Amino acid sequence: MNLTLRIWRQAGPDDKGRMVTYPVEDVSPDMSFLEMLDVLNERLTLAGEEPVAFDHDCREGICGACGMVINGNAHGPERGTTACQLHMRHFKDGETIDIEPWRAKAFPVLKDLMVSRQAFDRIIAAGGYITAPTGSAPEAHSTPVAKANADVAFESAACIGCGACVAACPNGSGMLFTAAKVTQLGVLPQGQPERYTRVIGMVDAHDEAGFGGCTNAGECTAVCPKGIPLTTIGRLNRDYLSATAKRGGTPGGS
């Protein structure tokens, strides 16, 4: 395959970026998208040019590092697929492919296709810990968990924190990520002692990071590579309303 790549190049957070065009030849349809970028970078390096910076780690679709916007779609055209698991056979010979970083106020561009997702780390940190007795690990069956709750927890825990939900949301909201992290503990017995302080802390951290508000557009779930459903946000909203009622305030206030 012969392709034309239009890639966002930006030297640093304070520099002005631009789209730069690169031709790539002899691309195997069996390559992953990141392998194709590796080939481009090898050629740029040999030519004495600056390679394209992009995040990657496991390349198995489970770390969330490889996020980028491909032809206007977070992670590319295939649903339920991360950029590292997207193969070039999903594109046509001679096609022009636009590749950009996540676009969100809370995700500042570091270089080229790399953005800072430290805002997600701050949301996780705001969730705190769970109260659990110390000592040896308890027996696996010592705390009964309803099957329905276990299924919801596992579904939410599948979130890899890639940020595709933020990139796709017209408001730049990170609420699907926040809801997944709140829910995976909020439906389990081990997460109950801090359930309501957790949701307030994480939602406050979400807002402080500069993410937009959720208006249930649903774009987040359409691009989520792990299929986190929109109902997860509804569950977070219920917990948040309950939490604010318990502390005697109103949502968004003390």
From TrEMBL:
Residues 18-103 form the 2Fe-2S ferredoxin-type domain. Pfam families: Fer2_3, Fer4_8. InterPro entries: 2Fe-2S_ferredoxin-like_sf, 2Fe-2S_ferredoxin-type, 2Fe2S_fd_BS, 4Fe4S_Fe-S-bd, 4Fe4S_Fe_S_CS, Beta-grasp_dom_sf, Helical_ferredxn, SDH/FRD_Iron-Sulfur. Residues 150-179 form the 4Fe-4S ferredoxin-type domain. Keywords: Iron, Iron-sulfur, Metal-binding. The keyword Iron-sulfur applies. The keyword rRNA-binding does not apply. Its cofactor is [2Fe-2S] cluster; [3Fe-4S] cluster. Belongs to the succinate dehydrogenase/fumarate reductase iron-sulfur protein family. This is Succinate dehydrogenase/fumarate reductase iron-sulfur subunit. It comes from Micromonospora zhanjiangensis.
